[in-house]
Amino acid sequence: MKKILILDTGKEWGGGTNSLIELLKRIDRGRFMFSALFYTNYKMGSGSNIKAELEKLGVEFILLERSEKRFYFKAAKEAIRPFLVLSPQLKKRFIFNLDYKSRIIPDSERIAKVLSHGGFDLLYMNNQPSSNLEGILAAKLLKLPCIQHSRVEVKLNSVEADAVNRWVSKVICVSKGVEDSLLASGVNQDRCTVVYNGIDSRVKAKRGPEEIRKELGVRKGSLLIGTVGSLVKRKRINLFIEAFAQLKRKDIFCAVVGEGPEMDNLKESCVRLGIKDRVIFTGFSADAISYINAFDLFVMPSEKEGLPRVILESMLMGKPVVAFDVVGTRELAVNDSTGILVKEENAEALASAIEAALGNTNKMRSMGEAGRKRVTESFGIERYIDGVSRVFEEVLS
Hints:
This protein is of the alpha/beta class. 46% of the residues lie in helices and 17% in strands. The protein contains 16 helices and 15 strands. It has helices spanning 15-26, 50-56, 71-80, 88-118, 133-142, 158-167, 176-184, 209-216, 237-246, 263-272, 288-294, 309-316, 329-332, 347-358, 361-378, 381-396, and strands spanning 2-8, 32-38, 43-44, 48-49, 60-63, 122-125, 146-150, 170-173, 192-194, 223-228, 252-257, 279-283, 297-300, 321-324, 339-342.
């Protein structure tokens, strides 16, 4: 049995967390023993947390608080900031170098101690190279094999790309688009392999659409469209809100399932646009798929993704998807077949696509059916588990 340490530097529950949980539920635990190192015991909504969920699966949870940046590094950053205003690239490089010396190097040494004391055979990182650089350096210190599971489109600097090429055994890319972004950043082709996220086709909604619609206060006969995700800037929920305000039909309600730092700004936008009575913010839900199942249409306005699990869930529930034509999303949704991919990334184009979809009931039904068929045939959970397992075996051998 091989001992694997999972490193996750994330701060909130997301699709990558769900994919990790699904992996740990199904991978051969007679072959692999897992422990997990996190900087934050982040919550699963208002109920559970990542520590509790991993321990349910028999995975040891290790909480490692991040190194605090030394005072003189903070002072240097503030002192030189005014001189870097005219050069964003120079500013970015300067801040990276400060972070590298003040936090990344110390954290890599602390992670190396955990790896050494635990007698681990492999380090498996669950984010992307920029946010897992300290893990890469820790593996380098011990000459230990490491795998990077890159879950979002990236743009690496030269130091990060060099670290991947020299010390990462394999990068698992959740989509071809993610792989392309790594190659464009200078990562070698032989380091990368694509393993698409998957979903269990047997997953069912726990609550029926009528129950959900009643909870949300959606009037009978009205349409319900919605989205699911962390309320952060890159998800661009603000564009969805603006698009919703432009819809000509007024018998439509909008549900936003998720929580995050943009919540207050989004609610203020709803007030300003005069749509606060028709937009419902549910907060985080561990049962997001029940909400998706109650939607007539799923909308994904993100500016970048890896391979969004929430679209897999939407297609499995037979819901047509309207989304911007971005990395990851375009490898799941097929334009005019399982949904509509919007080329122009603005609220007006998104509103037009939503109107077009809602205006053709038969087309909506056929797109939903095509989406369910595509997910079942091409993105099953077994392919995902087998693909990751093969990479583990290859690197450990």
